[in-house]
Amino acid sequence: MKKRVIDNRQWPAKVLAGLILGAIFSLGIMVLIGHVCGSTGNPMTQSAQWLMWLAALLWVICLSLCFLFRTGLGAWLGFGWLACLVWLIDTLLTGFDAAGGS
Amino acid sequence: MKLRADIVTVYRELHSWVGVVAGLFLFIAFYAGAISMFEPALESWLTPRVSLPVAVSLDRTPELAQKVFEAFPESRKNYTIVVAPDADHPARMVWPLTASRHGHGAQSVMMAALDEQGGLVTAQRKPSEVAQLIDTLHQQMGLPLPHEIAMIVMGFIALGYALALVSGTLVFLPALARALFAVRLEGSVRRKWLDLHNLLGFCSLPFHIIMALTSVVFAFHDVIFTLQAEFLAHEQSDAHRGGHAGRAMAGMPHGSRPPEGAVPLSPAEIVSRLAHEAPGFKPDTLDYSTHPNGAMMLRVAGHDPAHLMRGPSSGFTTMDPYSGRLIWRDYLPGFQPGGFAALTSFFALHFGSYGGAPIRWAYLVLGFAGAFLFYTGNRLWIAVRRRKEKATGLETDTRGTWFLGRLTAGCCVGCMAGIAMLLDTALVRPGWVSDHHAMTVYQVVFWLFVFGAFIPQIKERALLAVCGVFYLLLTVLVFLHGGRDMTTSWAVALVSLALGVALCRHALRRQRSRAA
């Protein structure tokens, strides 16, 4: 079987996926972990600061990895479903929190 | 370590293009950043000293403060007690005349002292803007844009920088063991630049990883914190949801409103409480301000050379001004909880705010080396393109190669020359530079060099030589005009002499290599 190789032909689509969806995914993970740890989002607290650094680091990682997708569409789909999944869990958690709190 | 050939190719192309786009901005950021390691020293050195009576003792500070409050009631809201006044900061008590941005930057202050008869003497201190401008050039990568916009642009360039680091490391890894110290200065130009670039890049990799991640954070932290508060803050007041500045002040722990008639402790008592509570921490300033709820807040800025510090030159704590109790020690060097100490290390590694002067000098060298790394990167790109173009039979450079070659020379030499001319002018015409002309001086020189680089009759060696002369001129001017602090004068003179000689030598060598 012939091995499929990657190249930079569709770089604009891949970069945009890494920048936009990568940011949405990273922020989603940040909010997810924030929910689990009970962070309040007050920037003077340790948890909020660690989460902020985590989001920045994840974003850089997403941007570095987006070129490994074979096509631009692949990058959008790959990061897209990850971002949707993370934010779906976030929304569910917020819902549970609200239901539990009321 | 073996990577798939197509992956290496993808990242090699990426490294070239991202490096070339971000490299010129990063050159400015690193060059100005290296100099801004000595921002406080430069600011004091360039600011005319104000003569005031000898500062009152710490014990007599309440008497001074009372007289200031009577004469300047607005000072009560926000004033600072200097714990150890010196020749550059001769007053015991100062209060700001202009608003500062998060406590950064040169701020005009009013200083107060008592004469021999106990009468109030005040004087204004208007710090030189030059050191602050060099820091701004560093933060904004020389972009002449409003600060907020420039920071976002800078953030995307910093992301490119991070990407260039990741891709560069991946590309270089396979050849790491056999090629690291093989610097072939003889032979092809391309190979010389490649070897220098690899060696510099690999040796300063940890430094660059820290710089890349911290600069991404510096650019985007406001946005990320706002989103965090939006999604995580369920039980917070509106104050926490506002802009970052508002949140930071509101989020800072502060004392509650004191009972009627309570008297705050005197600065001398505060300092002695602090020495007891936090031995090793040397307070520099006691900053008193009023919280929106009316309570008096006391933030102490100080240093401890044995520990990492959160700010560029200090760590912080807040105290209850009435009881002297330490309310908040998350940014207090040596007394931080483990997690905060780890976070502080990221900031300290960016600012070089640990280990005192030797680390600052080391950062100066690393900063210059970083700038040189980006310069070698661009030269390498040009050399590779020239080789490819020659192989196809072209006699002269294509437009792209010519453009990048000229732009690299113009930007790098222009930035160095702009800063040199800024310091030259600050020494000859200090008053003129301080009247908001500092940025104009820099930008005029920078753009003259950039445009000059595109004039075919002007060779790169001429730009290098002129820039070198600016630095040699600075050395001379330091001895003619500078002299408020001999240590700083000598440091500036030696660094500018070294840069001037290096630039002129480089210019001469290029001339010889062309002639040969």
TrEMBL record, chain A:
<feature type="transmembrane region" description="Helical">
    <location>
        <begin position="76"/>
        <end position="96"/>
    </location>
</feature>
<keyword id="KW-0472">Membrane</keyword>
<keyword id="KW-1133">Transmembrane helix</keyword>
<keyword id="KW-0812">Transmembrane</keyword>
<feature type="transmembrane region" description="Helical">
    <location>
        <begin position="12"/>
        <end position="36"/>
    </location>
</feature>
<protein>
    <submittedName>
        <fullName>Uncharacterized protein</fullName>
    </submittedName>
</protein>
<feature type="transmembrane region" description="Helical">
    <location>
        <begin position="48"/>
        <end position="69"/>
    </location>
</feature>
From TrEMBL, chain B:
<feature type="transmembrane region" description="Helical">
    <location>
        <begin position="438"/>
        <end position="455"/>
    </location>
</feature>
<protein>
    <submittedName>
        <fullName>Peptidase</fullName>
    </submittedName>
</protein>
<dbReference type="InterPro" id="IPR005625">
    <property type="entry name" value="PepSY-ass_TM"/>
</dbReference>
<feature type="transmembrane region" description="Helical">
    <location>
        <begin position="361"/>
        <end position="382"/>
    </location>
</feature>
<feature type="transmembrane region" description="Helical">
    <location>
        <begin position="149"/>
        <end position="176"/>
    </location>
</feature>
<keyword id="KW-1133">Transmembrane helix</keyword>
<feature type="transmembrane region" description="Helical">
    <location>
        <begin position="196"/>
        <end position="220"/>
    </location>
</feature>
<feature type="transmembrane region" description="Helical">
    <location>
        <begin position="488"/>
        <end position="508"/>
    </location>
</feature>
<feature type="region of interest" description="Disordered">
    <location>
        <begin position="242"/>
        <end position="261"/>
    </location>
</feature>
<feature type="transmembrane region" description="Helical">
    <location>
        <begin position="14"/>
        <end position="34"/>
    </location>
</feature>
<keyword id="KW-0812">Transmembrane</keyword>
<feature type="transmembrane region" description="Helical">
    <location>
        <begin position="403"/>
        <end position="423"/>
    </location>
</feature>
<feature type="transmembrane region" description="Helical">
    <location>
        <begin position="462"/>
        <end position="482"/>
    </location>
</feature>
<keyword id="KW-0472">Membrane</keyword>
<dbReference type="Pfam" id="PF03929">
    <property type="entry name" value="PepSY_TM"/>
</dbReference>
